[in-house]
Amino acid sequence: MAFIKQLYDKNYIEYSSYAIKERAIPHLDDGLKPVQRRILHTLHELDDERFHKVANVVGQCMKYHPHGDASIFSALIVLANKEVAIDRQGNFGNIYTGDMASAARYIECRLSPMAREVIFDPKVTEYVESYDGRNKEPVVLPVRIPLLLSQGAEGIAPTMTTKIMPHNLIELLKAQVGYMRDESFAVFPDFPTGGMVDVSNYEDGNGKILVRAKLDTSDEKRIVVTEIPYGTTTEALISSIEDAARKNKVKVAAIQDFTAESVEIEIKLPRGIYAADVVDSLYAFTDCEMSISVALLVIDGDMPRIMTVTEVLEHNVDRLVDILKAQLRVEEGEIEDRIHARTLEQIFIEQRIYQRIEEQKTQEGVVQAVFDGLKEHHKEIKREITREDVDTLLRIPIRRISLYDIERAKKDMRDLKSRLKQIRHDLKEIVPFTISYLERLIEKNREDFVRRTEITSFEQVDVREAAKRDQKLCYDKATGYLGHQVVGTNIAEVSLYDRILVIRKDGTYSMVDAPEKLFIGKGMLHCGFPDKEQVFNVVFRDKKGAIKIKRCKVGGLILNRAYALVPDGATLLKFTLDNEATVELEYKPAARLRVLEEQFPISEYPIQGAKASGVQLSKKDVKSIRMA
After folding, report:
1. More exposed terminus of the chain, fewer Cβ within 10 Å: N or C?
2. Could you tell me if 552 and 590 lie in one domain?
3. What mean pLDDT is reported for the chain?
4. 255, 287, 319: which is the final residue of a domain?
5. Judgement on whether residues 340 and 397 belong to the same structural domain of the protein
6. What confidence score (pLDDT) does residue 4 get?
7. Which stretch of DSSP H or E encloses residue 40?
8. What is each CA distance from 4 to 16, 312, 496, 589, 615, in whole angstroms?
9. Is the predicted pLDDT of residue 1 greater than 60, yes or no?
């Protein structure tokens, strides 16, 4: 068994690590899960700016992702519906209604213009072999925008989960600019479904948020839901309203769903009920208001790590700077190569070095003649001449030599040197260059990423306060049943969330939820709402036969637990809530007993604790007791 446990532990750890790193949790550097990265890499390989059948994209992606077409298809639909990296054509489902996408063979997609601009650059991307060694795939993509925070992410792995809210891309880019300028910044979630969000308990990417639907109450006899909370659908929202209506928590006459390109759920109200009366109930008892717990968990390097939005943005800026530096250095090297090649070409043609090869009889002689000719102009050449450089010159066609434009060549050389100077300046001033890059992105995409969710603050509706007391609580003296489904004496108007204090004939009492039908017993002494200031007055005979009075308040009751107003073995004789009442005792005749009746005002006795044993009224033999 010890061997089996070790084997189990080892395999579970391997599985957990794989699920965390390779399936469920996004990477900090590019904000993507492996399947998302492979989908985008596949689209980049296929990209010709035209739409591709999703079925074809899924099939091509299986070269990199070994977990089947279903997982690729579902991930592609989710990624496309985030409307950042992928353009869609066809039915990709509906984020409002929850309708499924059409089959992969009927719908098409391609990379968005933004994705082409800010997600890919093979020249600065590290590649590794795919799972079968036949292809190369990126370790992470050189993403130049905060894609993780813009798109959001959800994932569940053994022992951990991530739930990252989507944010507004323009606000994120502005926050990055603020960070680079040492300015304070704060960003909050922005959802594709719109609605309202309360971020009072949002702890910079962790904690929780409250989200609400937007309700149009301009017509007092109907309510129209125009935007739904993030994380639900119109179908689920309608189902929650219908469920609340069946339980009499919300008064609704009819619900109609007209949702298409935008949300429109019409709630018609019954006679005598107005929109203002129902709004709080909708937020309290339905999915019109939801609480979402968030956790910003990512893969940082090779380890899972809980981070904040601020930390992720700062990392994104640092990585953006590194990527832009790498791109500038790659371009710098390419331009240096081009300047070197153009310089050699210019000397080769303008100085007519090509004429020297006419007298050569061997290939080596030809090469050496070119070498010797170029060395005469070594001051103009900035790097060592290689055999590859000479071979390139020798491949220039005669027609191109004869049509060589010296002035145009000089202009091209000036342009290249000017660009090289600018690149080297940008490398020295990388912070202003990065800020300028971000500002161009903001200006270019400002109209495409408008905030949809209203940030506000709202108090969470207390369901007890929102519930209407519209049910009659009745007591049937003949059967001893209490409840709002009982026919009998009307006790009070209650809601489903009210709690009731009940005192039985034997002096036991308990606090219960307002019942549909509950057996209390005949002769119920009291039924009402719990009140810690209410004084209960009882007269009882203890187990030794003494007549006592007790006045007490009750509080701190546990639901459905039975308590006793009188001590064990005592018999309850009288009960009243009237603090001005008087207890009248009639005594049995006895020798030398002149007073046969005596009155005791209740108010003259102290209020004690619920467990007190009471105060004896008289030591005489009592014949009868009256309460006046």
Report:
1. N
2. yes
3. 90
4. 287
5. yes
6. 65
7. helix 34-46
8. 18, 41, 53, 89, 71
9. no
Q: Which of 127, 142, 157 is the last residue of a domain?
A: 142
Active site residue 15: no
Q: Which domain holds residue 270?
A: 214-287
Question: Residue 11: its pLDDT value, please?
Answer: 55
Res. 590 pLDDT band, cuts 50 70 90: confident
Residues 342 and 436 in one domain: yes
Contact status, residue 166 vs residue 147, Cβ threshold 8 Å: no
Of 15, 106, 127, 131, which residue is the catalytic one? 106
256 and 377 together in one domain: no
Q: How far apart are CA 344 and CA 349, in angstroms?
A: 9
Model confidence pTM above 0.85: no
- For 100, 589, 618, 624, the CA distances from 596, given in Å and listed in that order, are 88, 7, 12, 11
Is residue 427 over pLDDT 80?
Answer: yes
What's the number of domains the chain is made of? 4
Residue 292 located in a structural domain: no
With respect to residue 106, please indicate whether it lies within any of the assigned structural domains.
yes
As a whole number, mean pLDDT of residues 571-599 equals: 86
What is the average per-residue pLDDT within 229-249? 93
Contact (CB, 8 A) for 324 and 433: yes
Q: CB-based contacts of 243: which residues, under 8 Å, 6+ apart?
A: 286
